[in-house]
Protein 1
Amino acid sequence: MKKKNIKACCVLFAALLVSMAKAQGQEKNDSLVNVAFRTVAKEDLLGAVSTVNVSELLKKSYGTNSLDNLQSFVGGYTGNIWGQAPLILVDGVPRRTSDVRLVEVESITVLKGASAVVLYGSSAAKGAILITTKRGSIGPLRIDVRGNAGLFVPKAYPKYLDAANYMTLYNEALTNDGIATTGAGYSQDDINNTRAGNNPFRYPDIDFFSSDYLKKTYYRSDVTTEVSGGNEFARYYTNIGLTSNNSLVNYGEQKKNKDFAFNVRGNVDMNLSKWLTAYVNAVANLNDNYAGRGDFWGASSTITPNFNRFSPLIPISLLDPNNAALQTIVKNSNHIIDGQYLLGGQSTNPTNVFSDMLAAGYIKTRSRSFLYNLNARADLGSLVKGLSFSTGTSMDYTSLYSEAYQLPYATYRPTWSTVNGRDIITALERFGEDRNSTSEFVGRSTYTQTMSFRSQFDYGRTFAQDHNVTATLLGWWYKTQFSSDIDNEGGSDYQPVKNTNLGFQAGYNYRRKYYLDFSGALVHSAKLPPGKRDALSPTITLGWRISDENFLKNKVSFLDNLKITSSYASINQDLDITGYRANNTAEPVDHYLYQGYYSNTATFGGYYQWRDNVAGGRTTLSGQAANPDLTFVKRNEFRVGLDGSLFKNLITLDVNYFSQITDGLLARGLTIYPSYFSGSGDFRPWINFNKEKRSGVDFAVNLNKKIGQVQYSLGVTGMFYNSKVLRRDETPAESYLARTGRPLDANYGYVSEGFFQSQAEIDSYARQTFGTVKPGDIKYKDINGDGLIDSRDQTDLGHTGFAASPFNYGLNLTVKWKRLTLFALGSGNVGSVAFKNSSYYWAGGTSKYSEVVLGRWTEANKNSATYPRLTTNSTNNFRNSTFWMYKTNRFNLNRVQFTYDFNEEIFKKSFVHGLSVYVQGDNLLVLSKERELMETNIGSAPQTLFFNLGVRTSF
């Protein structure tokens, strides 16, 4: 929108405020909920807003992450909001969830509907989560201390075959491939010696998950002190926390792996005068991590149990004592492990994970965050009754750097001989060199800065006791700049992330029965071409408290409260416009997506043997065409909501239906422009073309009941979710391969029809084009019936659920008896599928084998096989198909906590005001047909059970 239109809007809004000057104020005594830039009485919320009272929740459920188990309390939240990633704001500033611990949080508000987030402009167009921290209150000094000590217990480890079985089956794979085992495979003597456990240094059999390398448990502990209090002039809240944990690995330098965090927060509220208040928040977060070098967990999924044919350690005791050269190597080595071993290696693996852990050094990672808010509010009631002005600014600084120590080291490959029936090493071949160093160096550094500024006028009045009016006019701006060293993080961003918008809200309700709200934003984006950078995002919301109507109020006795809301919104956003690009260091062209550019660099440009009478050279080519009409992406949304309470608040409910269309997503015009627009150069512009739809129903139902001395509550949340591609820039090989008309998370793959049982069956079937096919390979369905199995024979196999499954749900249960409280949390999902396509299942080449290959196809068990034939090169079998597909349906028992609150009368004559102790278990159970798969991590640290003992006391 042009500047004159913005000014006109401001004038009209100011006129509205002046016209209300003779009205009387409205007082709200019911609870308030934090929403965008303001608070609203819970009774007056107009739908698609959920809130969690974290301060009360912490009395029965201890957590660390600021969004801990939020799905169990909020319908429509699955880590995303209605299938899209939200903006996170901490005390009104875009921040990371890691910037605040749960024990610092007062409440969390999830803004789902477009009308609820529009005041944030473009940046929250996919939803927003508001995290509000605790504040002080009028009263004497109060000190609350909480301490926790817990143990992590691994749930499961991958089940890999031992070395002898791996070697045997690898030989089988070579035989299946028609490759002679001599040289490439393993001799029977090697297999027999390995199986017998003879000389594990010559015939290694490494189990990464044994007690040689891992502990049974590792710990986490933390202590938090909260200090609060104040008077009518100033209130303060201070939170100081220490956290420490170690790790599961118990080998080499990684025995010392640990994390340490120190956090301090100070929130101060001040009454500077009768009409002026202010508050300041200051936070410092310091996090230190120590990690020995070596990717242990990654190596655990790739290094075979015979350690790729060599031992990571060479025993000095088995070196030929009569070989002076070998003794000289030992004498001159910088790395004698435990006084007994040299480091092993070979030409193809001169270094390895265990050698790294033993000799390569360590990395100390330091993270420092300093967050600061300053806000002020002026009551302008003496000028216009009900009018106030507030403003705020913030400055956040986060730095991350590493202090690294690294040593090059030598490894050795032994030559083994048998002398007098004893294994002896008669020679060593060295790889690399031992070097000394006494210096640490900075190995990585990043820096992030966020600044924000906000100013707003708020108005709230009640006319004639029945007509309630609210209004807000605001301006909001923030900028985040990321910087880094180019070697580790790709260099600094040329342009920062920015948001600029003017927001406005005007609301009216009659006796809190009939509601009308108009909210909108004037958004600005530098990512778009001149003339297209400003836009208006309007929303309108209607509400009707139907339970107050006479035809229900006096006739339906079980109905306490029932409110229907409906909204329509059209939000303009640039989140899906990737913005400014600096291609890379070799490509000097920097451009927005609406800009065309040309280049003749080595990265982009044509090379011709002739060029203007010059014998060869680069010629300028087009990188992309300009599009002066590129514009915002729109979120058009219709929503209907229902919230209420029944049977004297025995049951409360909140339900929302939403239908959301995202229009104008970017594409390069494959279907719009002729093929010759890309070839020698690319003349296609970015255009607003793609279109998507998301729809569904979310709900939250709570039951609260007291029977005798037992009080219980049960909350059930959930979401039925669907998505659809309405238009996409695509040219599918077959019409049924088009993504248009399909869900956004459509999972494409092949339909398995079992295994080929004979060569005759292969010869008579459609020809599969994925490499050589033999009996025991997977047979795929010929979808298009052309007698050829290729990429055109894929089909939609179901939802991936990458944003949300078709049905997601959460549970929270509280049972309180006298002073004992039981609290439990659960969550789950239904309706999505995935593929068993990790290296644990797709074992090709020289990959290590898991237990799943024991069911491999052979001539002897061809009718009962559960795994394809073994092969070192299966491009046919290792493809997403129904053979590898499984349902991801699951229920997670996320937490169970028992809390006992001691009688305060016990401490009546002491300085202690209260004491609670609790025991807690997290990640306790997964109920699923594929539970073992879901609880087993491949190539990363294992999932863990967490058992915690905590105490909370006040002084």
Note: The longest helix spans residues 3-19.
Protein 2
Amino acid sequence: MSARDQPYVLTAEAERRFREVLGDDAVVVDEEGRDAYRDPYWFHGDRTYDSSAVVYPTSTEEVQAVVRIANELGVPLWPSSQGRNNGYGGPSPRVAGSVLVSLRRMNRVIEIDPELAYAVVEPGVTWMDLHQALQDAGHDDLLVSVPDLGWGSVIGNTLDSGVTYLPLGTDFQAPTGMEVVLADGSLLRTGMGAIPDAKSWHVYKRGLGPVLDPLFVQSNFGIVTRMGYWLMRKPEAYAPLFLTVPKDTQLEQAIDILRELRLDGVIRGVPVMQNTITLSSHFPELLGKLQGADATLSEDALQELADVSGVGRWGMRTAVWGDPVVVARHVEKITEAWSAIEGARVDHHRTFGRDEWHEIVDFVDKVQAGIPNLDMLEALPDHIGHVGFSPAVPLVGRDVREVVDLLEEIVVREAGVNFVMGICVASERSALLVSGLAFDTSDEQQSATAFSTVKSMVRAAGALGYGEYRAHLDFMDLAAEQYSFGDFAYRRFCERIKDAVDPNGILAPGRHGIWPAGRRDGDGSGAVA
């Protein structure tokens, strides 16, 4: 067994001391309680990434106490905010037997500043919590940029580079200013927060010297216990749109048109273009439940499904926000540009006014209006899970086409199921190709095939120069292996930071391929065998 996979066994002393600082109800060791913190999209019988306990601190001071005990006794900790990172391993730890640190009970909205349009939250605050807090405080003129499912943590989603869809969801614009517990139990505040009683902590993203906030995204250098999050003023007008691409051969043209609309500022936020199978999450009434785990449909069958349903081989959701006259003109410009695609359609059913938010009822319209919900879950069949691979690709039609074709070919050849793909336009110049496999979580062979197939996708995309932006727990090491420039200079630099700030290697060992010295394999690296 390699050093990195050596499981940890919880000692009686560690359990006792955690109970002393947190209380008995905040330390869970029984299997049923721990299983509440497993990704539901594992094969049901797989306990490879099992934990030994879950602890529930309720304050920054309690997090500090837990970390100090762990640092003294050598207990590996795996923190999560809400633990709803489903499809990426959820809250399960990379090192079996780790103690899960659930921050769900740290659920305060600490501050709402209506004048400067920002909030400050703890890790347990969900998108629904923050949205409700704004309503309760009478600030319904402020919007939160939200993801598709509203049950996740604002901080947790941010720290895993999660996607949200309003204009502030582009390129890490919304988060600002973090409070972080380090491995020795000390407390760090990033940016202007390093000044006592800082007045500009959550309104200016930098400070004096290096900007540290990104170091705590997808890393294992500290536990974030507080963060600022910028909000958006509710616009006078909001126009949700759905754009169709009738044929698969028109994808390149659509991407290039979209890029120019983004660069011109006509389309803002994070548009999402999905293939026919994936669009069932938006149109279950037209397409039925997600068919991602079903046997691959033929090209003719996919085209027929696209034509009969009217959603196209690719369909894109986007929106326009702003002054009514500007919104109307931008809808016209989008429609004009999209008309270059033969047979394409731009659906614009309604523009909502600022006082009409309560009339927004459709799932996609709610998400793009900053209204968190769980509606998308209704389109997922029972027992169907998913595992994702999402490389970052330039927003150029030929590049997107190359990667889409590569990944689809692997899925069809190795797994024989339908290909799912969502193209999240993360900026004016790049897209995240959110692909992967759906599978029956009660079927051991189908689950194993799904994971092996996605690993083939990681390797093949890496060979073409494309890397994962957010890796599943089961192949974090493999995804990190693709970042090999300069004899793994990036990883070696991260390892130096890890060894300096966490010399005992207690914080999330192995997260995104960053291993502490004591768990690196014989050559001193985290290399995949």
Note: The longest helix spans residues 444-463.
